[in-house]
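Chapter review: from sequence to fold.
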Amino acid sequence: MKIAIDIRSAGGEKAGKGWFTFNIVRNLLKIDRQNEYILYCSDFVAGFEEFKNAKQKRISGKGVFWHINAAIDIYKEKINIFFAPTSFIIPILLPKSIKSIVVVHDLVAFLFPKTHNKKAVFIEKLLLKTALKKAYKVVAVSKNTKKDILEKFGIDERKIKVINCAAGEIYGKIEGEILKEFAAKTNLPEKFFLCVGTIEPRKNYVNLIKAFALIHERFPEFYLIIVGKNGWDYEPVYEEIRKNYLQKYVHILGYLSDKSLVNLYNLAEALVFPSFYEGFGIPPLEAMKSNCPVISSCTSSLPEVVDDAAILVDPESPSQIAEAMVKIIIDQGLKNSLKEKGIIQSEKFSWEASAGKLYEMIHEMPKK
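The token string follows.
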């Protein structure tokens, strides 16, 4: 079969959807050496060069014109299956003879539209329902996302398969000297909590800053490090930091490579992940795999991801978030227990296993 995949999100500075695309496609290509793959992009994406049965195809155009040009080329290439890991436009444009697999990462545009980019909300509300109806198969990244899809759109449950995200291979426990060298080189504070994710309303950084302000006077030796680039409507986060006079204690590092991030997880007191809503939530898994305790929201897919290996909190309550941070500081037994449980929990998810499920889905689809 000839299989086409949109890999644009797998290039550059990747967030959750980008890491999903990069890892699921790489691991799928490791499994499937028989089918022919055409990887559609706007610019060359590193990481797929080793696979002889896959070639990248650069398509010109911006916005909707890229999608139209890609759809035309997919039709000309006589593709059997199109895999859409991030966008819903091409599956709508393609004829039914080309069977589409559409990935749904979350329904934030429908459930929490005020916390999401307005342009993205408009596009998803306009297109997602049609894309799901037209798709031959649908991938949901968590059981919770599958539940949301069924409740919102009522499509045939047999059409949906849950294929989870995972932490990348680079994440894991790091010992001694490497960590000391990294901490010294980067001038990190000795004691800090970590938060990872794009700075935007859905990630709930304002309540995190309020929580950190509550513990700051009692534990002035602790800092908060935020890893993530500025998304939309990020200004209130910086305003909350200024309002609480925490400029010296809250360090926003922007986007970091996974090589730096794995060191931060290993050094952090805990990852605090107070997001209002996640379709999956990869950072808690990365943290758990890297021997870092996790404080997580009790909402959406996150209890499914962390199970009993994290302290769950109400994201609407800065006091609950602060209480969890204090527990981590004062209770070494709890901290050690969360580390042990976290490593066990993280082993339940792997990109190899997820790619295997995707391969099974592709293998079972009719060739014509």
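Two observations follow directly from the output. The longest helix spans residues 118-134. The longest strand covers residues 36-41.
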